[in-house]
């Protein structure tokens, strides 16, 4: 994901891609690399239902523009999605090499 300019860019990760039908795998870890050149990146866990509720899981901001690694724990259930919201202000927000694993080390 790469976003530049003004405004929000949203990426929704449906957890149906990771979890068996009607499954709940408990807590898992998502790790990825990010580069922020002015702006922010927020990650939310969103309920998969009408009138969805979102819970903030990670907030990142930077202006240096160097690649960094982030990790966050989330509930791996079909009841949820992950929402990554990039908000560039004066530069760009980039995400790469997303990986899901059992625990965050």
TrEMBL record:
GO terms for cellular component: membrane. Residues 26-104 form the MAM domain. This is Keratin, type II cytoskeletal 1-like. It comes from Paramuricea clavata.
């Amino acid at each position: 994901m790469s976003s530049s300019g003004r405004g929000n860019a949203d990426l929704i990760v449906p957890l149906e891609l990771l979890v068996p039908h009607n499954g709940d795998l408990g807590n898992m870890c998502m790790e990825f690399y990010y580069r922020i050149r002015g702006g922010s990146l927020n990650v939310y866990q969103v309920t998969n239902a009408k009138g969805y509720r979102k819970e903030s899981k990670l907030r990142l901001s930077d202006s240096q523009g160097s690649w960094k690694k982030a990790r966050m724990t989330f509930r791996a259930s079909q009841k949820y999605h992950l929402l990554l919201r990039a908000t560039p202000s004066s530069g760009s927000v980039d995400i790469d090499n997303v990986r899901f694993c059992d625990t965050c080390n």
